[in-house]
């Protein structure tokens, strides 16, 4: 790397380090692991800089590398531990439905007023999203974020985490149910969220 | 009322079909009996985010939505969550106030400089 490249790489840390770190932290929760993932991302970026043709922004390119590093981390974790969180799969949402299986109308989904494009520019929304994600058990969160944030195809998620299709679907269903509930309670049903 | 458990549509509910008259009540009960119950429908809706739904189920879903605005909202909200979650990486710095420590920054910069040698 030339002197200029060293400076460029150092400027990445200043310009994008914070964002990458916070993104990683939402995914893995442990600060030391998030820091390691960010470090690996920058090292990989330096090695692969020639391949970066400027087709996307630097930030998007670095986030792309970080996503792969996070997937690698979960792949390793999936080999070491069982990724099926059976405890979370217990039916904790049963009060949402009456005994014959229809919504209990007092607890059914409310209307979400603001359009997604409106909420996306509000820092408070992302803070609520982060808090809601952090309430999910680690394995469920990993499955959900991989599938929904990173758009990893479901077959690939199963392969990465060594889980069956049906376990994946149940885990995703529970994650969506819990996240929906949490966003509704802490954002859409509040004056801040509902009046955007 | 003996048939009450099969009625998914309370009076005053905002679904397209509700118990507004005798015909609608019959229709609501018929659709309620021949389409998946909401508990099952939300699982099917979630699964359809990852795997295409067969045509017959798509038809049942449309019918079910006529009598159940809650399941319809649920599906819209799944899409809403996916749409926003995909934007999360771009907004990660707004999502948290946990600082990226100066020590970690400096350590990474040192590593980058070392790797350049």
Q: Quick recap of the structure?
A:
Chain A is an all-alpha fold and 196 residues long. Chain A is built from nine helices and no strands.
Description:
The complex is a heterodimer of chains A (196) and B (117). Chain A is mainly alpha-helical and 196 residues long. In chain A, 67% of the residues lie in helices and 0% in strands. Chain A has 9 helices and no strands. With 117 residues, chain B is mainly alpha-helical. Chain B has one domain. Chain B has helices at residues 22-34, 38-47, 55-67, 69-87, 92-95, 102-116. In chain B, helix 1 runs antiparallel to helix 3, helix 2 (38-47) packs parallel to helix 4 (69-87) and helix 3 packs across helix 4. The mean pLDDT of chain B is 85. Chains A and B meet through helix 1, helix 2, helix 3, helix 5 and helix 6 of A and helix 2, helix 4, helix 5 and helix 6 of B.
* Beta strands of chain B, count: 0
Q: How large, in whole angstroms, is the Cα Rg of chain B?
A: 24 Å
Give the helices and strands of chain B as they follow along the chain.
HHHHHH
- Specify the overall morphology of chain A: globular
Helix/strand order of chain A: HHHHHHHHH
Number of domains of chain B: 1
When the domains of chain A are counted, the total is: 2
User: How would you describe the oligomerization state of the chains in this entry?
Assistant: heterodimer
Rounded mean pLDDT of chain A is 84
Residue-averaged pLDDT of chain B: 85
**What best-fitting shape of chain B do the alpha-carbon axes yield?**
elongated
CATH class of the largest domain in chain A: Mainly Alpha
Broad structural category of chain A: mainly alpha
Percent helix range of chain B: 55-70%
User: How much helicity do the residues of chain A have?
Assistant: 55-70%
